[in-house]
Amino acid sequence: MERRTIGAAALEVGAVGLGCMPMSWAYSASRQRGEESVRAVHRALDEGSTLLDTADMYGPFTNELLVGRVLRERRRDAFVSTKVGLLVGDQHIVANGRPGYVKRACDASLRRLQTDVIDLYHLHRADPEVPVEETWGALAELVQAGKVRALGLSAMGAHPGRRSGARLHDATIRQLERVQQVFPVSAVQAELSVWSTEALETLLPWCVARGVGFLAAMPLGNGFLTGTLTPGEGFEPEDIRARHPRFTAEMTAANQPIVAGLRRVARRNGPEVTPAQVALAWVLAQGRHVVPVPGTKQERWVAQNAGAARLRLSAADLAEVAALPRAQGSWD
After folding, report:
1. Residue 103: count of CB within 10 angstroms of its CB
2. Main-chain phi, psi angles of 242, to 5 degrees
3. Count of C-beta atoms within a 10 Å radius of residue 10
4. Dmax of the chain from CA atoms?
5. Residue range 296-314: average pLDDT?
6. C-alpha–C-alpha distance, residues 267 and 256, integer Å
7. Are 246 and 279 in contact (CB under 8 A)?
8. With bands split at pLDDT 50, 70 and 90, how would you rate the model's confidence at 158?
9. Residue 101 bears catalytic tag
């Protein structure tokens, strides 16, 4: 697989990563199977999708344990990205950016991941009660101690419920400019997909101008852009899509033209090309430092996603995808 670099340290990863969250958190619990997920992680490494993205809050903790089962055997094949800064309670999530907690959480993640170093450690969310410079300083000390190789900031979901087209990432950029004065930012993780393009306005240009890597979260629109979801099927109660404003029955139907457009482009590029691969290839085309991190828990989707790295969309293809209808949500 094509290799891409993250940050000034030029950390190399496969062009398409693997989001491990669905294996143990946030999506249909009835379809979460540990052994199948372990096989999916192995398949990702076999395909060259070296970046494995997880977080201590996924589960909580169980996702890192699952990834650790693979790392125990194949640490040299993998690039480990995990996150710190959010605590999961009963029906709520809170931020914790206190320096002492960050250091303890890192040690716990290292144990669960069965490794002695984390390649990329993200601050999942800034704690409103702690100056972000203090939290970032603690993270920098972890780099200096050899426990972490590079630091990233996650901006996913920073402003839920905002309309498409709003300047979603202004606050994130202000945070980035503050922490950059303490220790270099190697990567930013934020949502970027055919139906969520807000990062292209200001956040991705900020990263490009500074040589900061960009991990594109949810590049398949929580599965919608794959074209494999059945309209009106619904989701299990704990599935995050059950409360997502773009996944109501009405909005699922209204957004079908987006998938239809991806299918048209896929057909032009070959009988085996899928809408999901077109969606990922579009993300890859947004810049050399952009690495999409699609989440899945099945080997077949891992292999299909990895195949997107070989798909080269023409200028006409990219223009057609860019011109697809704006995604609608129940807030619109």
Report:
1. 17
2. -65, -20
3. 10
4. 54
5. 97
6. 17
7. no
8. very low
9. no
Closest CA to 80 of 41, 44, 113: 113
b vs e for 107-139, b when ≥16 Cβ sit within 10 Å of the residue's Cβ? eebbebbbbebbbbbbbbbbbeebebeebbebb
pTM over 0.90: yes
Two tokens, residue 196: 């969520």
Instruction: Express as a percent the part of the chain with pLDDT over 70.
Output: 93
Rounded CA-CA distance 143/145 in Å is 5
Cross-strand bridge partners of residue 88: 93
pLDDT of residue 330: 66
- What is the 8-class DSSP label of residue 163? P
Strand partners for 156: none
Three-state SS at 154: strand
Q: Quick one: tokens of 257?
A: 């033209």
Residue of 27, 58, 101, 121 with catalytic role: 58
> Which residue matches tokens 């101690």?
145
Position 211, amino acid: G
**Tokens found for residue 228:** 């494999």
Cβ-in-10-Å burial (0-12, 13-18, 19+) of 268 comes to middle
